[in-house]
């Protein structure tokens, strides 16, 4: 379950999303599950 503030990336197209509001379910893109980014990987996307 994605938590607020986490970043996820699509392994197929490279789209990156930040979770603004936690919820149930899994994040998907291109009909595939998105991978969660480590803190170091997510640094480049933070404000």
TrEMBL record:
<keyword id="KW-0249">Electron transport</keyword>
<protein>
    <submittedName>
        <fullName>Desulfoferrodoxin Dfx domain protein</fullName>
    </submittedName>
</protein>
<dbReference type="InterPro" id="IPR004462">
    <property type="entry name" value="Desulfoferrodoxin_N"/>
</dbReference>
<keyword id="KW-0813">Transport</keyword>
<dbReference type="GO" id="GO:0005506">
    <property type="term" value="F:iron ion binding"/>
</dbReference>
<feature type="domain" description="Desulfoferrodoxin N-terminal">
    <location>
        <begin position="4"/>
        <end position="35"/>
    </location>
</feature>
<dbReference type="InterPro" id="IPR038094">
    <property type="entry name" value="Desulfoferrodoxin_N_sf"/>
</dbReference>
<dbReference type="Pfam" id="PF06397">
    <property type="entry name" value="Desulfoferrod_N"/>
</dbReference>
<keyword id="KW-0408">Iron</keyword>
<keyword id="KW-0479">Metal-binding</keyword>
<comment type="subunit">
    <text>Homodimer.</text>
</comment>
């Amino acid at each position: 379950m994605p938590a607020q503030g986490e970043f996820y990336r699509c392994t197929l197209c490279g789209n990156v999303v930040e979770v603004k509001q936690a919820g149930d379910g899994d994040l998907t893109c291109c009909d595939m599950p998105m991978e969660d980014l480590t803190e170091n990987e997510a640094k480049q996307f933070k404000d």
